[in-house]
Amino acid sequence: MTTQLTTKRASQSLFMILIAVCCGAAFAQAPTQIQAKAKVQYQVSSLASLGGTSSGGNSINDQSWVAGYSRLTGNQSRHATLWQNGSIADLGTLGGPNSSVTWNVKNTEGIIVGISQTADAEPLGEFWSSAAFYGGPNNIGFINLGFVWEQGQMRGLPTFPGGNNGFTTGANNLGQAVGWAENDVHDPACVSPQVLQFRPAVWELGPPDQIHDLPLISGDTSGAATAINDNGQVVGISGICDQAVGRHTARHAVLWENGGVTDIGNLGAQWWNTPTAINQQGDVVGFAGDPAFVEGEILHAFIWTRDNGIKALKPLRGRVPQHVDSEAYGINERRQVVGVSCDADFVDCRAVIWDHGVYPTDLNELKGGFSARLESAKDINNLGQITGRAIDPATGVRTAYLAVPTP
Q1: 369, 377, 385: which is closest to 332 by C-alpha?
Q2: What does the pLDDT look like over 170-180, one tens digit per residue?
Q3: Where are the alpha helices (H) located in 111-236, listed in sequence order?
Q4: CB neighbours of 94 closer than 8 A, spacing ≥ 6?
Q5: pLDDT tens per residue, range 255-278
Q6: What percent of the chain has pLDDT over 90?
Q7: 199 backbone dihedrals φ, ψ, rounded to 5°
Q8: Max CA distance (Å), the chain
Q9: CA dihedral 376, 382, 383, 384 (to 10 degrees)
Q10: Which DSSP letter does residue 3 get?
Q11: Model confidence at 192: pLDDT above 90
Q12: DSSP, residue by residue, 161-175
């Protein structure tokens, strides 16, 4: 069921008059105060690589741990990477060439989660969801599992019985991780090369690690969980198997809580409706499909709150070429939202922050003397620190960055 927006009407005009009389002076001063408030500036730095020329920050927690990926020397593979206190750590793999932290992991107890290829060949020839997150040349051909990394060790998480592949996105501080995993159902709704159905998963972290699924919207057969908070609220998608990457798998953006599933709505399309993050208050951000673009060429950022339902977050205004695509990736407890704004051809993409407004601010206007263009903002913590990807305009090289608000 879709949460509906409700509004309250004032029932006593006398009450409104008293408010105006008592608070008129404060209201009169408000515009001046707002105009005088300076925009936050950021000290931006590039994060070291594991030897390759491509990296990205996808997660930052309240201990300022940045997690993501970096290509190794030679640029033939990428590994899940942790940047911590000025150091860089290669988190390794489960035996295959690639691994990555792809979503924002809010755990502050020393746990990182993500995806990794194993050394085992993929028996059904599936590309699985993870192929899109590795890049070539070895992004397919191996079984992929969701992983947990803690105390310097990476371990794979179980799939549902009969399934080969899994994917882990987030973890809270209650010993729970979320994502999705295959079962043994050969589903005709899958689009080749995908064969097996998959379900949204919660892992109770052990040892032993135990997996259980989450309910789907009635009539749906596949789905995925993308984020979890410390209240056990989980967000994700519900739909059909399709291509195992968005599209019709993301018919419904959903919230799981108290054993049930709720459709939180869309912006007019029955595809690509994907929550990406949830804060401890239960506020949800993500991106939604456009009715004119079933393949997801254009998407629209959104924020959902229990009080106001789902609302669009617009792209940057006044850009040439015009920006039409927006995607939200991270939110903190202050409801600051970060993401990306792009033109239709994705030539000019900009890291942005929506700070309690429908329209965002280009983080490149707040980066000081940092020379590279901040191309995306993937996560923000409660200190206001942001991570994402920057692009060097001279070389085209994309690297992870950390943006720290200055005093």
Answers
A1: 385
A2: 999 999 999 99
A3: none
A4: 116, 117, 118, 119, 145, 147, 154, 155, 156
A5: 999 999 999 999 999 999 999 999
A6: 89
A7: -130, 150
A8: 74
A9: 30
A10: P
A11: yes
A12: TT---EEEEEE-TTS
